[in-house]
Amino acid sequence: MPEKEYIASLFADLEHDLPHIWGRTVQSVFIGGGTPSLFSAEAMDELIAGLRMRLALEPMAEITLEANPGAIEVGKFAEFKSAGINRLSIGCQSFNDDYLDKLGRIHDRQDAINAAESAHAAGFDNVNLDLMFGLPEQTLQTAMADIQQAISLSPSHISHYQLTIEPNTLFHHSQPALPEAETSWAMQEQCEEQLANAGYKHYEISAHAKEGKQCLHNLNYWQFGDYLGIGAGAHAKISSAAEQNITRSWKHKHPEKYLAATKTNDHISGSSILTRNDAAFEFMMNALRLKKGFAKTLFTEQTGLSIHQISKALEKAEQLKLITHDISRITPTEHGWHFLNDLIALFLKET
Question: pLDDT above 70 covers what percent of the chain?
Answer without folding.
Answer: 95
